[in-house]
Structures
1.
Amino acid sequence: MFALHQIQTRPLLLNTILSPKNLPSSLLLIKMSSSWSCKICTFINPPSQTPTCQICLSSQPPSSSLSSSSLSPQWPCKSCTFLNPYRNSTCQICGARSSSSALSLLDEEIDDAELEEVGGSDIGSVFLPLKGCTNILKSCSNKGKDLSEPSGLIGLRKNGKRKIMDEEEGEGDDSGVKSDDATKDKSVTERKGNFLKIMTYNVWFREDLELYRRMSALGELIQLHSPDIICFQEVTSDIYDIFKGTSWWKTYSCSVPRDKASTSAYFCMQLSRLPVRSFKCNSFHNSIMGRELCLAEVEVQPGRTIVVATSHLESPCPGPPKWDQMFSKERVEQANETIKFLKSYKNVIFCGDMNWDDKLDGQFPLSDGWFDAWSQMKPGDAGYTYDTKSNKMLTGNRTLQKRLDRFLCKLEDFAANEICMIGMDAIPGLTYYKEKKLKKEVKKLELPVLPSDHYGLLLTIGLD
């Protein structure tokens, strides 16, 4: 993962000047003696008597001006425009090289007259959507860094715009399980009235498709909806580390300690802003995919608890030669085992990626007192959480529209108030390329990027 402490937060200057006589176009010198960078939109404002940003009208920070002598030399990558330290001969992001002879010119003194010449028009001309970074992905750590808010990691977009994400130091230990009573008490009081929000989301373990940007967008959904309990599926150790570095993570207790996250290919994970009595995890006896049932018993009010369970039931894996590896039998057995196990609880919610196919698996085996929240509250709405037609990121895939993700409830002291689908919008300005074979011709499709291949679900319940 990216070492965020090595990522420069100073943006590229639109008026960066190069001397064509002394410097090749692969080098960049930044003049910031009197100009200042806006922390909100990153625009470099020229010297002015007006202490506000020309773009977004934000106030100039009191200590924004820097002496040019205090800046360490840097060179910009022509492929992705990232500012690299003088000591590096290759770009930290995309691996493009800069010649040592060109780097040596940074040691020469450049006067102000030369800085007035306009140059470097080819910088950033090679601006393709970023793919998974193999250059420093595994060698660096983003521990304690925040990807969810302004002022940190620079994410590059195809259209040349940049989104700035927070680089604030994270808190909490490596166990992943927090027990800060003050934080939880504050979370309880911040909830509106007597309502409780629960989110379930399969985050998609595909790490080569804009992982950081997708997880950052998912983090924005968390900050927008402020769920009290979150159930994730398909979390990887890298995704775990990304989440752990965000500001919103600090308000949750996590069911998965760091040592387990680092040794699992992917897993389910639960987060709670409410006081947690216990986290439990039971493996399904018939799973060949290592699937399990995870439970969180949380205290909603003193003496009043609710159990929230999540799972990623056995996945269909059709493939040659017969294309019949659907694992329906295993999935149905796991569903029955779960409902039987949870029946003793007074208030319980079972949510997650059920991989359920009503045509193949039949009706979900709910016993008396249970109900399907989507079916009950949105009758007539198909509720496809995996939809290759509406999710344009999946264009070119085999057509599939299924309600794979569900909320199944048994409530005595609570009532379901609302359920909605989230994460249905593409991430602005971000695309990726997919090759699709049509007849004998291979076409390259430019497609939008969404937070996941699944949509998420958000359920709101209230005290009955």
2.
Amino acid sequence: MHLEKATLLYNKPLGKNYFRLACNAAKIANDAVPGQFVSVKINNTHEPFLRRPFGIHKVDGCRIEILYEAVGEGTRLLSKNKQGSFLDILGPLGNGYDYRYALIRHKTPVLVAGGMGVAPLFFLAEKLVRSLGRKVRHSPRVLLGAKSKNQILCEKEFKKIGCSVTIATDNGSAGFKGKVTDLLKQTLSTLDCPLSTALYACGPRPMLAEVSRISRKHGIFTQVSLEEHMACGIGACLGCVVKTKDGYKRVCKEGPVFNSEEIVWEKHTKGGR
């Protein structure tokens, strides 16, 4: 874990309320693994007081990139930061995806993203493709889900690095009409052997619960990245605990990535984006 004063390289809008931000943070970039996150102090004042967590979207040399949606006071303020300004960034934090499982066991990686859950999965896809990519059975399959086509992010980027991409939208404005979890069921039905698959997912809790249910039915190794509100980001405040089969665990410390079988999914979380 490092605390860096990072120079902002760009903070580009990707469409309505979506932004891609990059900054120089060499120590964080060097140590980061897919699924980990950074905690960002939004500005030099005391408002907002708390840092904001962001999954690491991409690492390129000493540069890290985050993808975010400006939906609250903190992220709206972040979207106003300009090139050349400085950000106080703590990271990398938490536990990431076990991408080596797919590589060592020659599994086909299937990445399932719901909405902004796409953010950490691109870093994972790059790692799978670029490091030991020949050891997986097939290139990563990426399933992107959103309410409508204008909320689908990073489709071209995934395709550019060699991933097979399929889209699901709730309203049918692009790709498969329905939830990305229904698309996952369809995708698994086309595979000769679902057991040759490794699933990695990030998105809303109901979506992750459904991914877990589907993978359990097929006996597939599955990891999910939980989205939780975090106050400290380092495990001290216990504000982001999640119920697991081994008791409560901190999403910011033991997570945000967990094996899906660890989580006690509440009944009301059934469904998916």
3.
Amino acid sequence: MAEPRLRVWLARPLFEDVTGRLDQHFDVVRSAVGNRYAGAEIAARLRDVDGALVTLVERIGAEEIAGATRLRAVANVGVGYDNIDVEALGAAGVLVTNTPDVLTDTTADFGFALLMAAARRVTEAERWLRDGHWGRWSFDTLLGVDLHGSTLCILGMGRIGQGIARRAAGFDMRVLYHNRSRLPEAVERECRAEYADLPGLLQRADHLVLALPHSASTHHLIDAGALARMKPTATLVNIARGGIVDELALAAALAGGRLGAAALDVYEGEPRVRPELLALDNVVLTPHIASASLATRRAMVALAVDNLVAALGCGPDAGRPPTPVNAGALKR
């Protein structure tokens, strides 16, 4: 008699032609379009499955897996995984995977798009035009800040940070970076980047891009004190995680003329955005879409599927998921 098939939960509809591969190996529990699960709802769906494929909006921790005695793997679609308590899942023997690499270039592209939009006041100019103000144009209307010849500072020099640094070369920008550990000299040369300590980085930045992970040590790293070190003409771009920035302090600095402009793709309470930020003209706001190109999102989902299939002992890479976060959980 054939063994019963493993069961997995697909938290939301994602490229059916890609996620359809799960049906070759598992019984798949699919969620309806538009559903957003939290807390007890997630716990209920994890209770009777062996694996799950989730996105950044599904938050999974100790409470959500308390009754999930069959659960062996959670495949997260995204390079960041602060929606998942990796320590709690690892302690329960649940493998967590993510999708790095495939979104690096697309995210770096978007980081530069945000930088240009904020520094050159692109979205502000569009609103101004649509509101019928062009008839009042003057020579100093909507003056922005140049990218070429300026100093770009990158906080967090992983794959995405390095991608941003390489793009800066085309704009003749000087690149400084700060990272938890300094990069090898060969990588610095490739990226044309110089290492700086954090206070020096903040003080010298004409433009600052955040590309570091969110953790207890980086929570509100960019607070009122950090913002006070920056030039009043500087531009801040956050494509990392919202919790890295004290958003109330940022809004106050932007409103008070102590910071020139900002561009945010991530927010501490997303999908909620603080009204203090929404009220400002000198901030560009996008809804966490840095990786949102068709090709990249498909590649992310495909990698998550590969991870889940392998983590549950199926397919050609059985037992060897490509990108585990807590590989030690495989041994439990």
